[in-house]
Write a structure and sequence with these properties.
Length: 246
């Protein structure tokens, strides 16, 4: 496992933030958003018990896992994994809907931190130079106010030290929600969505990890990867917080 050294200024800033949270917690205790337990100073949004109860896939430890198999023959990937299973009626679905539709930004970052911790323990992030979140179309970004995939990537970056690279790829079209479409319909829409962005040149000769929230059919991830493959010497991997199970 290789975890990059955190810059001293960033380390001190985060240490100060934890200290201030601890002091604030003496007067207004922070509670786990799931079970209501008091959070410890090193916990954020969710307690360790609730995080440990999430349905882990362990794909980060498995070569030729389900994500890699489903993406095989579609786009060449350095490696791929999803962190947790996404099923109806389970707590992860509530968390994802919370940060995707109800403004719970810090929850997205915390889920990213947990994803990063698990990936680091398995050595999955070794060899990656950048994290590239799947972008939102500007109109969707303006409406929501943030990109949940970027927040997840920021959480992964916090614990791994792998920097986030924005604007390497951009979303140039958006056709609305695709939850009602089948795999072929999703792909036909998604393949027109993405183009190289102004920072694409920074990825030349690098290995980048695409970050998204949920892997459903893989159509969005595939369409996001395709323009990046035109960058000279680039290798691409894929990581999602959740893997949809029907």
């Amino acid at each position: 496992m290789r975890i990059r050294k955190m810059p001293r200024v960033l380390f001190l800033a985060r240490s100060l933030k934890r200290c201030l949270r601890w002091i604030w917690g003496l007067f207004v205790p922070e509670l786990c958003q799931s079970c209501g337990r008091h959070l410890l100073p090193n916990e954020n949004c969710l307690c360790r018990l609730c995080l440990d109860e999430l349905p882990a896939t362990m794909f980060e430890t498995i070569k030729d896992n389900d994500v890699e198999k489903r993406m095989s023959g579609r786009v060449p990937l350095f490696s791929a994994f999803s962190c947790f299973y996404f099923r109806r009626g389970e707590s992860l679905r509530t968390y994802i809907h919370g940060f995707k539709y109800h403004g719970q930004r810090e929850l997205a970052r915390e889920m990213g931190r947990e994803m990063g911790r698990r990936a680091c323990r398995a050595g999955f992030l070794d060899g990656y130079d950048y994290l590239v979140p799947v972008p939102l179309h500007p109109s969707r970004l303006a409406k929501r106010g943030y990109n949940q995939s970027q927040l997840i990537a920021e959480g992964v970056s916090e614990v791994s030290g792998v920097p986030v690279l924005l604007h390497a790829v951009e979303r140039v079209a958006f056709y609305g929600s695709q939850t009602h479409l089948n795999a072929e319909e999703r792909y036909l829409n998604a393949r027109r969505d993405f183009a190289l962005g102004p920072k694409a040149g920074l990825a030349a000769g690098r290995t980048v990890l695409i970050i998204d929230d949920v892997f459903t059919t893989g159509a969005t991830c595939e369409a996001c990867v395709e323009p990046l493959l035109r960058i000279e010497g680039l290798r691409v991997g894929l990581a999602t917080l959740a893997y949809a199970v029907h």
